[in-house]
Amino acid sequence: MRKSVFITISMLLLTVAEGLAAGNIELSAEPDGCFACTSVCEIQAIDGIFSDRTHFSTEDSLTICNMLEEARQQPQAAGQPLFFARKFIGRPYVAHTLELPGEERLVVNTTQLDCTTLVETVTALTMCAARKLYSFRDYLNALMSLRYRGGRLDGYVSRLHYFSDWIEDKGRMGITTEIQSPAPPFTGVQKLDIYYMSTHTKSYKALEEHLEFIEKIREQEMELTGRTYRFIPKRDVQNTKLMRNTVKDGDIIAITCNKRGLDIAHLGFAVWRNDGLHLLNASMLHKKVVEEPMTLYKYLQQHPSHTGIRIIRLNRMP
């Protein structure tokens, strides 16, 4: 049973155990549920920044804290996204974990992941490790900065629902850089025509319940429509010196598609092996996080709607 933790009152850098003693953390758990504690795990809310706008379980907070403590002990290794990404291998693939009832909240879920939440979770951990920030509060800050436009949670429409929007926003914030050269291999050009969410509102509970969100989403789609990005066509995702010099271990791979109204079909992390480039991803097919056994070239050929890959790299943290 997942035990939900909600920070409901502003606290001054309390550990989880101290927070319970002070009555500042409210636990929703089974009667016999116990709350594990670690001295590494610190939670802090500053006057409503996180407060009731954050949702995570006991297990989630401990997982993050333990990973950050391991990163603190291995600072050189922890600066690489694959250090963290491989720790999630085997965890179940579950979609729509961010869609909670009520107001939009910053959701931390480390036990159930989809392709986007895996990328955000791993990137937030890598950012913390690179900056030598090891508290749970630091992780919440990093995750917030990734998931929402400008790093500010301002309701459902502030979440970056299209990954091209995510790439643009994180680029403006100086967090990531999209690699679009040299050409080759970046010989493909993707011109966006985005409208999927506003025309498939029944697929999104929040849009069904809040019709006023639809117009804002449509405006965001119109902002993206017409933009162009260079990508590597799937025929060129080969095991070559050029590709190895261009795509690095731990780069975010965004798989482009020709599905109407969409930009990106799937996400994961680049992993080079002797036989070529592979994808570490939260896989709907395997129903868990995996380091895909087949090469990415073979994987792409099995999906007719996939056209190639865009490459996004985490910037060096100051």
Summarize the structure.
With 318 residues, this protein is an alpha+beta fold. It contains 12 helices and 14 strands.
Low-confidence sequence ranges? 1-50
- Global morphology: globular
How many runs of DSSP E, i.e. beta strands?
Answer: 14
- SSE string, helices as H and strands as E: EEHEEEHHHEHHHEEHHHEHEEEEHE
Radius of gyration: 20 Å
Percent of residues in helices comes to: 25-40%
Structural class: alpha+beta
Please give a structural write-up.
With 318 residues, the protein is α+β, with helices and mostly antiparallel strands. The protein has twelve helices and 14 strands. It has helices at 16-22, 58-73, 75-78, 81-85, 115-130, 136-147, 163-172, 196-199, 205-209, 212-224, 241-246, 296-301, and strands at 4-7, 14-15, 25-28, 42-43, 54-57, 106-107, 176-179, 188-191, 228-233, 252-257, 264-273, 276-283, 288-291, 306-314. Strands 7, 8, 9, 10, 11, 12, 13 and 14 form an eight-stranded antiparallel beta sheet that branches. A hairpin with a 2-residue loop joins strand 11 and strand 12 (276-283). The chain is globular. The chain starts with a strand and ends with a strand. The model is unreliable at 1-50 (pLDDT under 50).
